[in-house]
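Weekly structure sync, notes
Attendees: PL (lead), two postdocs, one rotation student
Agenda item 3: pending single-chain targets
PL asked that the sequence for the first pending target be pasted directly into the notes so everyone works from the same version. It is reproduced below exactly as submitted, 131 residues in total.
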Amino acid sequence: DEGPVGDIYVNLVDFFDVDHDFTHGELGLYLQMFQHTPISHVLFEEYKGSSYPTMFKEIASFLRTKFPAPQYSLLVHVHEANQLADSAALDAVVGGANGIWSGLSTDAAVAGHNSACAYLANLARYGSAVG
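Predicted structure, written out during the meeting:
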């Protein structure tokens, strides 16, 4: 048996709309189900761009308890609406995310997203000591 072929990604966009209670209701049931499937990468995003960076850290920390490293990669995708997208991406990493899922530049995936260039520049600026 060669094991699974390819990787399974799941994108969770609901966490920012559940009143900080991530374990109950339908979302809690999905989390339990995902823990028993061969998922290798968990992505999360806030689709409105209206959450503060600390919320990204809180959600990354919570997801890391459900999807521990190194078994799972945890990636964040940030929408820009309040000029805090770069900070939110860094806070997610401090909370346990492995990295980001984004366009190369701020205009690469339609304006309004965080960029890999800014993220990498910030990591270099802080000496990769974000976490």
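Discussion points:
- The first helix runs from residue 25 to 34.
- Helices lie at 25-34, 53-66, 85-94, 116-125.
Action: rotation student to compare against the earlier draft before next sync.
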